[in-house]
Amino acid sequence: MDEKTRKLDYEPETRSSQAVEKEIGSLSSKVLDMLQVKGKVTEPGPAAGSCSTSDGDVSGYRSVRHPWSLYGADNDSLQKGMNNLKDKLPAQGWKVERYGADTSRNQNLEISAVHSETRTQLEVTWMKGLDGKEPLIEVTLYSRCFRDSGDPNTPDSN
Fold first, then answer.
1. What average pLDDT is seen over the chain?
2. Structure-model confidence comparison of residues 115 and 151, the more confident one
3. pLDDT of residue 156
4. What's the whole-number mean pLDDT along residues 132-139?
5. What pTM does this model have?
6. What torsion, rounded to 10 degrees, do the Cα atoms 72, 78, 84, 89 define?
7. What is the pLDDT of residue 153?
8. Counting beta carbons within 10 angstroms of the beta carbon of residue 117, is it exposed (0 to 12), middle (13 to 18) or buried (19 or more)?
9. Is the pLDDT of residue 15 over 70?
10. 3-state secondary structure at position 113
11. Angle at which helices 17-35 and 75-88 pack, to 10 degrees?
12. pLDDT interval class at 3 (50, 70, 90)
């Protein structure tokens, strides 16, 4: 393990961005299914971006993020969705690391989890809309840093 990956606390795998985007997209769809809430979902799909190591080097290192929101449902439905998610995540290979209210005045409910197999991070927040905005659930999934096998700047994996 070189100095750069030691700062990450893990050795980044060499993978194609497209494969990681597909993996994150699949996990994201399963999260939506687990919520079991009828509503509208924001669009853009998973996308790869640079992943900075502790020393700021981004050459050849990537991470995939997929942020989206579920809206158009009332708070009772969104609360049930959060309960569904908390109950169903462990059976789908996720370890729930945090479940509880955030520090905002609205005391929004948060779930943080890590997928056991892929080490994908999941952050979910139920924004109750008590500030006059529409209630919604914000979801973000993101992969670990990886070396992009399709990037000519990817460092040798020797």
1. 86
2. 115
3. 46
4. 93
5. 0.85
6. 80
7. 54
8. exposed
9. yes
10. strand
11. 120
12. very low
Q: Give buried/exposed letters for 72-110 (b at 16+ CB in 10 A, else e).
A: ebeeebbbebbeebbebbeeeebeeeebeeeeeeeebbb
Which of 148, 154, 151, 152 lies closest to 17, judged by CA?
148
Q: Which amino acid is at 156?
A: D
CA pseudo-torsion sign 10, 15, 18, 20: negative
Token digits for 143? 């992969």
Residue 57 is predicted with a pLDDT of 58
The Cα–Cα gap between 136 and 2 comes to 42
Q: What is the rounded distance in angstroms from the CA atom of residue 88 to the CA atom of residue 109?
A: 16
- Integer Cα distance of 48 and 2 in angstroms: 23
